[in-house]
Amino acid sequence: MSTLLSATAHAEDAVELDWSAPAGCPDASAVHERIRSLAGETLRTKERLRATGRIERRGTRFRLTLTVRDGDTVGERTVDSDACTDLAGAAAVALGLLLEDKRQAEAAATQTKPSKPEGDPKPSPGPAQDDVTQDGPPAATSDDGERLFRAMVLLPHPTYDLGPLPTPSIGLGAGLGAKFEAWRFLAIGRYYPTVGVAASDYPAAGANIDRLSAELWTCHGFRSGRVELAPCLTGSLDHYTARGTGLDVAPRSGRAAAFALGGGVAGDVYLFDWLALSATAALRVETSRPRVTINDFGEVKKLGPAQASFALGITLIL
Question: 20 to 30 Å CA-CA from 152: which of 89, 161, 229, 291?
Fold first, then answer.
């Protein structure tokens, strides 16, 4: 009587995999199972592959870094995706392709040089350098994938300002900035239309005041899904031009600058990865308080001690 024995090939025997992934993502056993379903007889190779796979969360997306060592050959790739399940599948496909290359190389070496010692044939490292085709966004490198550094363009932001002028001001702002990981740095310019101020002792005289503002913002963001909130430090340099108006008042101009420091918050709702609906709010304290005066009439107005501003607009993230 004869007995027929069959041996089952296991992915664990062909690939030595060091795997780590966030909770909820496929584990090493799931990756081995996928390799086994893809590779089939390819698992019957003479040498094992050694691979390290790391899945990390990058904001709302995931990144796979897969390093493969086959003898003296080392290959590494990065793949980004919205779902970590896709990344586990990409790792299995990459390792399955390498195993197929090893099997073909070993078969060719056996046919052409049967006396050559095992282990000499080395598979081409080509697949370990190529991108894996998968559903969703294409694979990206560290330079053009989930970039750490991104430019920001603030399209015209309507602004509502309280103080330091005696009446609320509605202006318009725009700016440029940069994001580095969770940090953002912004430079914003704002223009406010002319505000008329009457002298308290002689209402027939007064001044028209124009204001230009340059602001710097430094913020650290905290993002959840499509919403990001960022507490900020902010400072503004305000330039005022006042011109006398009214009966018996010469229309002369005077200029002054004032610096204000304070804090604020920036909020973004991401409509797309590159486009956000943005809002800012700030409260700053004046370090000096310019006075508006008219010769022969005295002081018209002393500017206020603080300013509060609110702005809403669209931001491009490039």
Answer: 161
Q: Using CA atoms, how far apart are residues 105 and 122, in angstroms rounded to an integer?
A: 7
Mean pLDDT (whole number) for 39-68:
80
CATH 2.40.160.20, the chain: domain bounds: 149-317
pLDDT digits (tens, 9 = 90+) for 200-256: 777 778 888 999 999 999 999 999 989 999 999 999 999 999 888 877 777 778 899
Q: How many Å from the N-terminal Cα to the C-terminal Cα in the chain?
A: 74
Written as six digits, the tokens of 193 are 């239309």
Residue showing tokens 């919205």? 82
Pick from 89, 75, 66, 71: nearest CA to 18: 66
Q: Which amino acid is at 29?
A: S
Q: How far is the C-alpha of 56 from the C-alpha of 33, rounded, in Å?
A: 21
> Which residues make up the CATH 3.30.160.100 domain(s) of the chain?
11-129
Whole-model pTM over 0.85: no
Question: With respect to CATH, is domain 149-317 assigned 2.40.160.20?
Answer: yes
Residue with tokens 């309507």: 158
Note the CATH number of domain 11-129: 3.30.160.100
